[in-house]
Amino acid sequence: MFQHLRMIRHGKIHGYAVRCFIGLALLSSFGVCSAAAAVLCVNPGGKAGCKSTIAAAVAAAAPGDTIEVAQGTYAEDVTITKPLSLVAAQNAHPTINATGLPNGIFINGMSAAPHAGVAQVLVSGFSIHGADFEGILVVNASDVTLVDNHIFDNNQSLDIADSACPGIPAFETNEGDDCGEGIHLMGANHTSVVRNESDHNSGGILISDETGPSFDNLISENYIHDNPYDCGITMASHGPATTVIPTATVSFGVIHNTISHNVSARNGLQLPGAGAGVGIFAPFPGTTASGNVVIGNEILNNGLPGVTMHNHAAAPAPAPAVNLNNNVIIGNHISGNAADTEDAATAGPTGINLYSVAPVYGTQISQNVIDDEAIDIAFKAPAGRVDAHFNDFGRNAIGVDNLGMGNIDATENWWNCAAGPAGKKCATAAGSNVWSTPWLTSPFDFDHGR
């Protein structure tokens, strides 16, 4: 399943710390669940004292129990509201066929919204397909681990012609055009999504905030590919679910999440401008997508710029502010992606595009290799600043394009030749308020930081 997932050649940047964090997160989840009081079993015939359905085993389980599922296909929508481990039995690869059902697995802590109402859940080793909406939906949960699952061919309710998702629950306020994607974390924190494959859903993995803040989640070492109608990985701040939290007036925020060492390829290609490799969105007043880190990923051949950051609407005080600040894009390989479209349009295929009608500050773009793009980094905002250093730009590309009134500190980059952005056949700098001197006279050494 994961033969296409590999550490990229410059993935050593902060990679040790990220990998240690992954290991600790998984050990923490497995450690909690391994102390379970009982192990329940499931097989298709309910033989040897086992349950015949996963849902029956979940209902019978006490908090902290482990449920081992034997080989077979289970036509179910499994809802989990308590701490437990749901795992494939040894040498088994069970399938949840959710055809005609809302989800394959729904980890539901919404009773405590906007806080987490369920914690310490592990789901490992399943293939999940056919759901009307998400393959796995995690809502108002903490310390969830999703590892080694294959999520494919979900979001079946999506009506492409009308850009609608008939029947999607009202608390999913902005998922009408994608049915929630393959894996969806909403109001989740300290959740790890590791070594999964997500393909041929509308989109791959979505983190959003309708029912509470989504923060400190880790999306790592996943293979996310060929999701035709949305991004590979999306971090999006949406309108609050007032059906769940009637007093909510502004979004809760998508904050401090880490997108690490994934492959995100060939997503969003079915419609023009359908999806990026990684998207970070605070689209309208009161939304927050801030302080997120995109590190060490392969981002290839997607239908929007490889990393796409958007805000499309803002309003003067006292309207709620937009917060698309302090996101970090570091150590990625970005190649062969498409141009941005509509109000965020770029003049050609683009590696990283930051577009906002509100000021944006604190964006760090560093140590990326960007190639096979017409524009490597584009920035358009009425004010703000981007710091872009130690990147390797493509030959004959526009390395940095400032389309707005903000500032770009683009010093200490490799412009694909020693002469810098003014050199023949070098990458170039376009627009005003771009500072490029001094530049690197050789490619950045990603192994030794020089």
From TrEMBL:
The residue range of the signal peptide is 1-35
> Gene3D superfamilies, from UniProt?
Single-stranded right-handed beta-helix, Pectin lyase-like (2.160.20.10)
Q: Where is the Right handed beta helix domain?
A: 104-242
Note whether Signal occurs among the keywords. Answer: yes
Q: Which UniProt keywords apply?
A: Signal
Task: Report the protein name in the record.
Answer: DUF1565 domain-containing protein
